[in-house]
Amino acid sequence: MKGRIRSITGATVSVELPGLQLNERVLVGENQLAGEVVRLETDHAVVQVFEDTLGLAMHEPVSASRSALAVQLGPGLLGRVFDGLQRSLADLQAQAGPWIDKGLRASGLSVQRDWVLTPLKQPGELLAAGEPFGSLAEGHLCHLVSSPVAGRIARLSAGRFRLDQPVGALTDGTPLLAWHPWPVRQPRPCRRKLTPTQPLVTGQRCLDFLFPLLKGGVAIVPGGFGTGKTVLEQAIAKFADVDVVVYVGCGERGNEMAGLLSEFAELEDAAGRPLMERTILVANTSNMPVVARESSIFTALSMAEYYRDMGLDVLFLADSISRWAEALREISASLEELPGEEGYPTYLASRLAGFIERAGVVETLAGTPGSLSMVLAVSPPGADFSEPVTQACLRVAGAFYLLDTALAQRRHFPAINWAQSFSLYDEPALEYFTQTVHPRWAELRQHCRQLLLEEEALRDVAEVVGKEGLQDRDRLLMQCSEQIRRDFLCQNSFTEDAFCPPSRTATLIEEQLNFYRTGLQRLQDGEPLETILKGPADATGSA
Ligand SMILES: Nc1ncnc2c1ncn2[C@@H]1O[C@H](COP(=O)(O)OP(=O)(O)OP(=O)(O)O)[C@@H](O)[C@H]1O
Ligand SMILES: [Mg+2]
């Protein structure tokens, strides 16, 4: 079906093409730019074009696709870098060089590569929608192949195939393919949601110990300019104990994405495999079209859910959600919608909740548990955490890692404010770490928090009376607390210390707290504070 362009305002194009549906994907103009129908009127439809509309002219043709904006889901997504429309950046570069031309197309999946299928079903068996019918090896992962259509299997062949070849067929003649398209805005189905119980170990002491995240949980990382959001997100992407990582560079700097790429190519995971083997990168950097940024989150999310559906633990990271919300605001403004708070559309909170709710632990259609966790950076302008995006995220997030400008200025990294951050996942995480890592994990944590809180209060007193005016036991507390902040909470992402396993986390904090406990004892025994502060020579025993 073909129509015509009626008017053009930036990336918003009004087209005359009867029969279009909301969220349908359309191809706009002579260059066939990808776009999505965002509003329907009686005599025209409004389309948001994902690519640069410079040079687009009136009356150029528009064609409908009869399908919603979709991603291709199948083997071969891992290790690749896509743009917000799931075009492989390597393929685009091969076609047109480093500068992406308009209207270029690149498939999300490669048909060049051979895969070896092991059938999990026999001919004659019933296949439910979403149920795996075969498996294949994608890197070290067992990739389960499923089909969104149900039916009885007529044939299914084992062995080598390419993605453009059917691997079997249903009795009604529907070919069985090892990939399928999925509309990005539609959450992938599961049997039911389960309660998250397993901690997601990040290797960041401050997080694992004070503000743990669970597999299937959602954490937001709000922080002002330069407070370390990107470094923290990338550190988590590198070290998190998950099977698959989907990282979306959303409206941030291109060079950070390039840095991530070259770093991941060299780094290895705990099992010694290249980190890129478990990673999918979606790049919609600040110089790429704004409209595609809005959809890039959904493109990435659908790929993350696809791997979750294989019973895997998937981590979704986005840097940053604020840039995504800004894209939403820009689109909304160009559609002349009624603005809400700070110009964001009135549906900002529900749209955000809509995609954050796609996180969680689920029982997949195959009956196995799979998890999708999220760590989302938020960059509130002027580090004002009362602004709408931070507040909307806060309502749905389970963990809140507030990055403090003052700490970042003092080079305390990660600059997580321990007084204002929180995690609602405390209980199951504490139980797990206490049972599997250190029998006194919960107790140590309680002591550590107490010490930090007491120091906070003492600091105000010390400002008035001076440190020397404090009692010896208070001076000892301040000294120990400072050591904990410096040697335990600070963790440089660019040194060997970048990853700290929970066992080491427990040992480190135990040593620090032991020093405090024995120090108190020695003070009581009449030893002078100066001798005690000289070193933890006698710091043995338990806190
Ligand atoms: N964990 C860390 N270890 C060592 N240095 C760090 C750490 N976190 C942040 N930094 C330092 O802070 C700088 C800024 O960090 P980063 O780029 O992550 O900030 P950001 O919050 O993403 O900034 P922006 O708001 O501009 O995106 C880094 O270049 C690095 O020097
Ligand atoms: Mg950043």
Describe this entry's structure for a reader.
A hairpin with a 4-residue loop joins strand 3 and strand 4. The longest helix is centred in the last third of the chain and has 25 residues. It contains 14 helices and 28 strands. It has 543 residues and is an alpha+beta fold. It folds into 4 domains: 67 residues, Elongation Factor Tu (Ef-tu), domain 3 (Beta Barrel); 69 residues, OB fold (Dihydrolipoamide Acetyltransferase, E2P) (Beta Barrel), CATH 2.40.50.100; 233 residues, P-loop containing nucleotide triphosphate hydrolases (Rossmann fold, 3-Layer(aba) Sandwich); 102 residues, Bovine Mitochondrial F1-atpase, Atp Synthase Beta Chain, Chain D, domain 3 (Bovine Mitochondrial F1-ATPase, ATP Synthase Beta Chain, Chain D, domain3, Orthogonal Bundle). The C terminus is likely disordered. Bound molecules: adenosine-5'-triphosphate and magnesium ion. Adenosine-5'-triphosphate binds next to helix 3. Magnesium ion (MG) binds next to helix 3.
The radius of gyration is 27 Å
Bound small-molecule species: adenosine-5'-triphosphate, magnesium ion
CATH architecture call of the largest domain: 3-Layer(aba) Sandwich
Low-confidence stretches: 538-543
Number of helices: 14
Distance between the termini: 75 Å
Task: Determine and state the CATH class of the largest domain.
Answer: Alpha Beta
- The amount of beta strand, in percent, is 15-25%
* Overall tally of structural domains: 4
CATH topology description of the largest domain: Rossmann fold
* Count of DSSP strands: 28
Helix content: 25-40%
Q: Indicate the mean pLDDT.
A: 90
Specify the structural class: alpha+beta
- What is the CATH H-level superfamily of the largest domain? P-loop containing nucleotide triphosphate hydrolases
Quaternary form:
single chain
The main pleated sheet reads as:
10 strands, mixed
Indicate the overall shape: globular
